[in-house]
Amino acid sequence: MPELLTHRRLDQPRAERRLNVSFDPEMFGRFSERIARFLGTGKFLFWMTVLVISWIAVNLLAVGFAWDPYPFILLNLCFSTQASYAAPLILLAQNRQDDRDRVSLEEDRARAAQTKADTDYLARELAALRLAIGEVATRDYIRGELDRLREEIPGLESPQEKRRARTGRGHTS
């Protein structure tokens, strides 16, 4: 018996034949942010004003082209439709901005905590250095101790007295 074709075999599962459409969930968010940014510009207000004035002028002055007579119900419908889409898009853009701000705030807090920890560490190190320096014998301390020992041991002259004796300045006759 001849071997059946792969697509007709019953002992193997069929390959999935669905149309796989990949959808980027952030794409709509980015698109809505662009629209929300544009709706808040002077350019949008200018062109919207030009459109409304043109709409009203054509419908009042050009009687043959008047598709929306005086109460301008179609214009109001356009405004309502625009508002019903603009408000959710603006809210979506604000929510995305809030999410970005929240992440930025968390990063700032982490950076501030790290800076505080570093500052505390440096303050402890500086205090330890101050304590260590306090225990180090300074030149003045050693000189003072040597002078005190010279005075206690009879017959020892200080280096200044030896110099005076060599130069002859120390003798008063």
TrEMBL record:
Region of interest called Disordered, as start-end residue ranges on this chain: 153-173
Presence of the UniProt keyword Ribosomal protein in the record: no
TM spans (from-to): 44-67, 73-93
Pfam families the record matches: DUF1003
Keywords: Membrane, Transmembrane, Transmembrane helix
Recorded superkingdom: Bacteria
Name the UniProt record assigns to this protein: DUF1003 domain-containing protein
Organism, as annotated: Saccharopolyspora terrae
